[in-house]
Amino acid sequence: MILQLFIIFLSITLFLLYYLSTKNFNYWKVRNVPYLKPLPLFGNYRDYILLKEWGPLITYRICKEFPKEPLIGAFYGTEPSLIVQDPEIIKVITTKDFYYFNSREVADYTDKEIITQNIFFAHGDKWKVVRQNLTPLFTSAKMKNMFYLIEKCSRMLEKLLDEESTTSPIIEVRSLMARYTMDCIGSCAFGVETNTMKKCDTPNPYTIMGEKIFENSSTRAIKLYTRAMWPAVFYSLGYQIFPNEIISFFKKLLIGVFESRQYKPSNRNDFVDLVLNLKQNEFVTGDSISNLKTGEGKKVHLEVNDDLLTAQCVLFFAAGYETSATTLSLTLYELAKNQEAQLKAIAEVDEYLHRHGRKIEYDCVNELPYVEACIDEALRLYPVLSTITRELVEDYTLPTGLRLDKGMRIHIPVYRLHHNPEFFPNAENFLPERFLANERENIKPFTYIPFGLGQRICIGMRFAKMQTLAGMVALFKNYRVETASDTPDTIKFDPRGIISQPSTKINLKFVRRHDREKHNM
């Protein structure tokens, strides 16, 4: 009797699970949108959910199944999502009708964690007002004023390279570049010495925090997709994506810097100064996101509290070091494999240093077109954010006539766009020339989007460009890079990562240029 009841209970449970995980699977069929047949519970992303494959690569393959379709239906687990691979519709979503798509995803749950209140995760009026008030920190003039700090960090990078290459010429390049970019963001944004480029017998606390933010573990990965697919269940069970110790660390960091400045803005004009100015008021004012729809001039007042400010602090630190470190390491990886391109980059750096008395100055952001093209090409091959997600804030009808419901998740497949031979001939090859002067004009708008698009374009794009170019000059000033015996032939990305992160170490050989040049004479 007990066995029979158990079998009945199990059968009902399995039936309900199957029903709940498949009840939406006719969503795209009734709307006449092409799609691949989904699997119960997993949808079209089984291998991503099982941590076997990087998510954007699955999206890439879905797009290849429908190369001429502007819109493709998909199922992100049990929920329908729309993949948009037509540049004109991407333009509508990111610029023309941005109001309807201003949310990233899981909009109703961004206040559940302190960190997800930053401008990467936020939406609506909160995103708009905070973004408006942070934007002045990233003007060209502000970047130029803080470049002396970047130059100091670049000199420390030169010294670090000498120390590390003396021990062994084979260096893991991503961790090396992370030490440089972490020092840059610490100095420029917070006015603190992270000391990540100095030798120390104990673990560096900033490095520890960076690793916790971008932790690549199965537990973190399960949390990420559970939150994305079933946020109500995720938060009702008391889970969080990020551990509380991250918030505690950065709150303590801010308070320490506040006290050192006696709670008064300094003349550094950095992130802390901006925060201190905001902190002096109980509220911050900006334009309502609804103005984009109504054309009105409505203003919104947003309460300024420690949680809101700390959330932005974590974002600036994390995005300021990790994305640039990954970009620098992958640029060097490609140049190590493409020696002809590297020689051109080194020649340009030599000419620049000759003009500027071997000093790295702010002009490097405008005087190194080929080096910049190498970075741009690396970002094409390996975009840091390989899928851009948007969430509809109201019901909306696309120009194609397809009606979408509020809450629909939109995926812009950046990795697919960047690797589409229709937009980039020889798409799998590293060809920096495609980003030089006249050639760059041939790139179709809304097909190259390494920093996002429209009003949600990366707020720190200028800073990223500044520190990556300075880092490249500092490195090529005395060194060149070659592949090592264990350098991977191709780069694969970790399916557990919150952003695009290589799944294996990238070891490169750093060769002092004058030694190599002397050997070749």
Automatic annotation (TrEMBL):
Reactions catalysed: an organic molecule + reduced [NADPH--hemoprotein reductase] + O2 = an alcohol + oxidized [NADPH--hemoprotein reductase] + H2O + H(+)
Keywords from the UniProt entry: Endoplasmic reticulum, Heme, Iron, Membrane, Metal-binding, Microsome, Monooxygenase, Oxidoreductase
A single GO cellular-component term on record: endoplasmic reticulum membrane
UniProt-listed Enzyme Commission number(s): 1.14.14.1
Cofactor: heme
Principal cellular location given in the protein's record: endoplasmic reticulum
Membrane topology: Peripheral membrane protein
CDD domains per UniProt: CYP6-like
Enzyme class, first EC level, given as a word: oxidoreductase
Pfam families for this protein: p450
Compartments in which it is found: Endoplasmic reticulum membrane; Microsome membrane
GO molecular function, one term: heme binding
Keyword Iron applies: yes
Homology family: Belongs to the cytochrome P450 family.
PANTHER family named among the record's database cross-references: CYP9F3-RELATED (PTHR24292:SF54), CYTOCHROME P450 (PTHR24292)
Name of this protein: unspecific monooxygenase
